[in-house]
Structure formats: structure tokens, C-alpha cells
Amino acid sequence: MGGFQSDFASHARKLSSPGIFCQAVEWAPTFGGVITILSSGDIALLRVLKNGDGVWNLEGIWAECTENPVCLSVNNRFRTVAVGSENTEVSLYRLDETTGTVFVQQRLRVSNREYPDATTLVGPATKLAWSTDGYTLAVAWANCGWALWSVFGGLLHTSLGERVGLADRIKVSQMAWSANDCQLVTVMSFLSPKKNHSPTLERSAAVEVENERCDSEQHQCPAHIAVFQLARSALTTNPTSYVAMNMDGGRIAVSGEYGFAHYSCVTRRWNMFGNEVQHRDHMQQLQHPHCPVTVQTFP
């Protein structure tokens, strides 16, 4: 590791510069430290180790270069780091225990087979999320589109392959996997089409829940998407600050700056709470340990 330590030391001047800071950081216990993207565009594995004299030292391993890295996500099960870049690609990094290098094993990219001129269309890869079992990586791009890749590099699904007219209109701003990896929950917006302008889609926001599998035995069930429309005027006057779902998926709570509401998937109705009496009556109902909600009353 001595050679790589000296290589890290050669970057010390850059690291001490006032203009250098961590753009993204993730704890990587199976790598023995943290993975960081620096504002200089460098990617490094940082470890704090104790020497023979009992003194703690910072050891750094510089990773193979990726052009303009934007975000990262660590897969501790397979000791893999996914790094999204401005050129739409996602690089999968692994640690070589023999040489001590952090190298790019493969690069994930969409091509014209998925959508015409896809690399120009989607923009930088800005959101990455590994499934809890480590087998699947969800990727979302800044302009539009999302995709699922296997940890081994196979493209499993992409929104760019969906029906013509919709593929380039879905923009994902946030996403997360459920605890058992049966669901990928995304916060989406629908972009206005270049032609056939649709005011309805432009003025709406959506929460999407897509079921991929039913249970661990992988019994098949029909996939469905539940879309809850929120008026743009309501979002402007009362910005949404938190969305949560209870454990059985039966209710969705939405908290805004001036109040909150919840949706029942059984009755398919919204319940709005607009005064202090309702506030007190329904506080206990939403105080679920896995569904914390910041509550204020509507004016």
C-alpha cells in the first residue's frame, strides 16, 4: 500500500486548498473507510488507521478517474461503488485486494437501442439507489428517464423502452427501495411534451409506487401504478415537505408547510385536517414509529 499512500500524499496540496471540499460522501464499512467525491472531480477511499506507535493516520487511495462525477452509492454486500457522471454513464468501482487499487470494473450506459439519441436526451446521472439485497441498482437522470441494472452489469429495465410519447416525459427527483425490495418508490414529475402541450400534466406532481414482486417465493402478481395528483396551485401555497406510508401500505401521509393530509388506499379518499380540534383528534392516528409526520394546522 506504500505506493498508493505516496500517490495520495502527492495530492495533499490539492486537498489542503480552501476551494476543495467533499461533494458527496458515503460510509463504506466493507471497504474499511469512506468513499468521497471531491469538488476537484477526484474520487478517493479514505481510511483512518493506527500505526505501530498508536498514532492515527489518514490513508487515502485514489480511484481510477471518471469524467465529472456527480453522485455515488455504496453496495456493501458486493463491495461495489456506483458513481454517476455528467456524461450519463454510471461507473461500477471495486477494490482490488492484491494491489490495493480502486478500479472501474464496468460502465453502465443507455444507447440508441433504448431510445433515439438517448445519451443526449437524459442528461447527467443524478440519483442512484442500491436495493437492500445489493443485486439491483436504480438510476435516474437529470433531464428524464430511469433504469434498473443488475450488480453484474445487465440492463433489467428502463423507462426509455416504454411506449413512445411517454419515455422522454418522466423525470424522477427522488427514489428509494422498500425493505424487502418488492417496491421502488419514486417521486416523479411529468414533463410537458414538445408537441400536443398538456396543461393537465404540467400542473401536476405524482407519487409512483410500482410493484415488482409479491414475496420471497417470487409468486407473480399484476404490477400496478398508483398516481396521486396534487394541484400545482396547492404546492405553490403549501409546499410538500414530507411524504410517508404506513407499514401495511394502506395510508399515505403528506405534510406541507401549513398543514397535513392523509390518503386511504381502501376508501380512496383524502382526509384534510384544518383546525386544532382535528389536529388533536388525529395526531395519535399518525404517530406510527415508521411514519413520522411533522404536523401543523391549516390557516
Automatic annotation (TrEMBL):
Coiled coil: none annotated. One of its GO terms (cellular component) is Golgi membrane. InterPro entries: Ric1, WD40/YVTN_repeat-like_dom_sf, WD40_repeat_dom_sf. GO terms for biological process: intracellular protein transport; retrograde transport, endosome to Golgi. PANTHER family: GUANINE NUCLEOTIDE EXCHANGE FACTOR SUBUNIT RIC1, RAB6A-GEF COMPLEX PARTNER PROTEIN 1. This is WD domain, G-beta repeat protein. It comes from Opisthorchis viverrini (Southeast Asian liver fluke).
